[in-house]
Design brief:
Blueprint lengths: L1 E4 L4 H10 L5 E3 L17 H16 L3 E10 L6 E2 L12 H12 L6 E12 L2 E13 L15 E3 L11 H7 L1 H14 L2
Parallel strand pairs: 1-2, 1-3
Antiparallel strand pairs: 3-4, 3-5, 5-6, 6-7
Helix pairs in contact: 4-5
């Protein structure tokens, strides 16, 4: 099976390819000639994920899946949420995003948070949604060098390490994206 993953993020692409079995070939947006930034103007992760798959289907004709993920911090009323990638500005700078969160949580004891992923799939004219969630807390210092995005400041529940201190395989076992991808794979394998 060959399917398009609607992302231009090389880190997400690498992470997803490491999670899917060999019989499912993941094709990137650049491989289908889509190099533009697909709009993400939805007010929810789910809306953004469906916006991306529908864009690819409409403009390129491919069945595909897309994800949108967000970090939701209790003390920040669920922010940055759907604005996670551009929390500190449209540049989508991970270091600036983390710095903003660390500043906002300075002096706050409640650092509980969750990461959520919504994966939308358009396949054979049908839409499906797969979700994954992991709870944890925010570290006020960066921990580790691996991963991307908020990985250096997110410590999952029952762990002492941040996502950035884990191997890609360790992260994939417990992460929000890993859980959502496993649900997607189970669905694709059942067809």
């Amino acid at each position: 099976m060959k399917i398009v993953f609607a992302t231009n993020n090389p880190n997400k692409l690498k992470e997803i390819k490491a999670l899917v079995p060999k019989h499912i070939e993941i094709v990137s947006l650049s491989e289908i000639g889509c190099n533009e930034d697909i709009p993400e103007t939805g007010e929810t992760l789910e809306a953004n994920a469906f916006q991306k798959v529908n864009y690819v289907k409409e403009h390129f004709g491919y069945d595909c899946f897309a994800d949108d993920s967000g970090l939701e911090i209790n003390a920040l009323n669920g922010n940055p949420g759907v604005y996670s990638a551009r929390y500190a500005g449209p540049e989508r700078n991970a270091d600036a995003n983390m710095a903003k969160i660390i500043t906002e949580l300075n002096g706050c004891e409640n650092r509980k948070a969750q990461f959520r992923t919504a994966i939308a799939l358009v396949l054979n004219g049908e839409e499906q949604l797969f979700e994954g969630k992991v709870e944890g807390e925010i570290s006020l210092i960066k921990l580790g060098e691996k991963g991307f995005g908020y990985d250096p400041i997110f410590v999952p529940e029952n762990e002492t390490r941040s996502f950035a201190q884990m191997t890609m395989q360790e992260k994939g076992e417990i992460s929000h994206r890993g859980k959502a991808v496993r649900r997607l794979i189970n669905y694709l394998s059942s067809l």
